[in-house]
Fold:
Amino acid sequence: MIDVPGFRDAPGRGPAVAAEAMVATSQAPATLAGLDMLRRGGSAADAAIAAAAVCCVAEPMSTGIGGDAFAIVWDGGAATGLDAAGPAPRNAQPHEVPAAGGPRSVDVPGAVAGWAALSERYGKLGLDTCLAPAIDLAERGVAAGYHCSWMWRHTAHAPAEFGPAPETGQVFRLPDLGRTLRLIAGGGPQAFYRGPVAAAMAASTWLTEDDLAAYSAGWVEPLRYAYRGVDVLEMPPPTQGVAALEALGLLSAVERPALGDRMRAVALALEDAYAQVRDGADVSGLLTPSHLSARGQDRPRLLREPAGGTVYLCALDGDGMAVSFIQSLYESFGSGVVAPGTGVVLNNRAEGFGVSGSVEPGRRPYHTLMPGMLVENGRLRGPFGVMGGFIQAQAHVQYLASVLDDGLDPQAALDRARFRIDAGRVRLEEGLASSAASLEAAGWPVHVEPDRMLFGGGQAIDIRAGRILGGSDPRKDGFAAGF
Structure:
């Protein structure tokens, strides 16, 4: 059995490079599928859909068609946000939020509707073509990456329908999921939200067939904040994107932010996000100069954050379109519920209502999913993102500080050791262990955490002076590549 390796005494690798186009994902087959779409004349949207679908097969504990998705699309001159997160059932009764998955932790899955909306507006090849690589892998089999294998083996409620957890490199198949993907490829999102698949999902959860049939994805305006002369774009509520932007706003007042400054800014911004991020909320006040100035004088509290699993990927095509895409079941294998005969693992996203205290019928909970995008002087700088549940806002700030403050390339920025504020303390990845004593002396409750899985995994593409650079997190199984 191969365990997850710790930090190694070896030089870091340089960034991936490309002349025209690039894809970065957390799974090797997904990167290859995205590149195949681009070589066939597809857009960055086609590449993102193909890669996301393959991740549903190659990393099924982290994502699936029973989950949600968000994206930011740069179409060559402007940015648009895709919101494909589903609500709780309309007839749900407010109750204590479930803590261990199950049928009553499921919200309407939005990912498939998101794929269809992205394909219709920005795709060139058609949804059926984009789903073909995932269908092939689900039916013929895919080799488990070592992070995939580790996460699967360490999941308490891995579904029996998927069989035993594969060892690293072992080929596994998901034929039921392959058949459902074929239905979607042939019939579009209606084959998922209506008919036998929808009936199976409703019969397995507290969702109704009407809840599923009524769902559609939407397009929204991203939030933005200028940090060090670069516009940082994040998604509005119900996501926590504003937390990253507020933290950057707090750091703007510091000429050369140190590690403690970054931790403090993140902690303060997360407090505000927990209090104000709700479905449909206006959070623009958190980014005003007056709020940032006043908030910067406060002492942060260390909140408790649950874990989560997700996949993030990004794509850039030769026409200048970029897609920053994130998709999730929330926790590993989501609710643990599989709709019989479909291979669809349902999300446990309703647990996000724990932030507000109870389930809200027909509304979406606090969301962790955060695709990011950088725009500099009106031109695309590049998409970026880091999966990992509630660490995402924290990791965005750390990535951006590494790139925009410290001048690192995207691979070096993703390689860099991270901190994570949760459980009333600050977890430090091993690479930050040398900072523990000084942080403790400054009053931070610190724990050096050997479990790398708690620190997320990111992907990024960064365009600098016409040079396309890419990075893929060593904490995951993928890579960045282009042509």
Q: What stands out?
A: The chain has one domain: 28-395. The two ends are 36 Å apart (CA to CA). Residues 28-395 form one domain. The chain is about 30% helix and 20% strand.
